[in-house]
Amino acid sequence: MTFSPKAICLDMDGTLLNNYNQLTENTLDIIQKIRKTGIRVFIVTGRSYNEVFDSAPSDLELDGFVTANGMITYVDGEKLLEHSLSIELVDKVIESARTNRIYYEVHPNDGERLSLKADQGYMEFMISGDKPDEVGINEWLEREAAIEQDIRWHDHLPEQKYAKMYCFTKDHEKMKAWIKELKKMKSETNFTTSSSSRHNVEVMVEGVNKATGIEALLKHYQLSPGDAMAIGDSNNDIPMMKYVGYPVAMFNATDQIKSLVKETTEFTNDKEGVYHFLKDYFQHKL
């Protein structure tokens, strides 16, 4: 172990979780053993806080959570840093999603994800039937669960704070074209986008990403970016990888991620890659 981190930042989908969105007992156990040595462990994810616990135990104890790609950061269940999208922007994105038949979820800063009843029909139809070959099993299962039980369908968009919008389509070429439409929208309203697969895009506040959330946690614990290790797999992890002192790519990571890191795990997320990497890396410390 040449680098001795004081904090470890862990992505969820494609990293901590297997392809069926499960967090294994081995992975949970190694994380808690590392925390007992005094190393801070953070989850850093595109998921909202509620979505984290769709896959993680409800009593999971960590030193911090960066959620919604940096939009809200938590310590001990309390918000350390919070951003929100404007209602006007959310309305514009929904209108464009409806016109282009893009599936969408609006994630409030507090509470359950929602969509509008006017769009329920085409969204449910999109997620019906068998999983397309080109869509990852983890993303498809998440959409099926969202349609079946997680989305709250509203007649109108409630007046409240919104952390992010998640948008999806089965056709990656259609998503590529729609992202271009969103870029045109940026000339009128400042916001940023991030994708964790070819089939999705998430909308957040301009200048906010996983690195800005990590920065808040490190300041809270009086640590520096050079003290931190991060493990991730997809392109929404790029700001995180560029920010920390010791970035690590999953075996299943994108080429862009692998070009930024010091090490790559021996195993994929579906073979407990994080567990095996951490167990081997800290074998003389645990």
TrEMBL record:
Gene Ontology CC terms:
cytosol
What InterPro entries does its record include? Cof, HAD-like_sf, HAD-SF_hydro_IIB, HAD_sf
For this UniProt record, the keywords arranged alphabetically read as follows: Hydrolase
Q: Which Pfam families match?
A: Hydrolase_3
Entry GO MF terms: magnesium ion binding; phosphatase activity
Q: Which PROSITE patterns match?
A: COF_1, COF_2
Question: Which SUPFAM superfamilies does the entry link to?
Answer: HAD-like
Q: Which NCBIfam families match?
A: Cof-subfamily (TIGR00099), HAD-SF-IIB (TIGR01484)
Q: What is this protein called?
A: Cof-type HAD-IIB family hydrolase
The record lists the lineage as: Bacteria, Bacillati, Bacillota, Bacilli, Bacillales
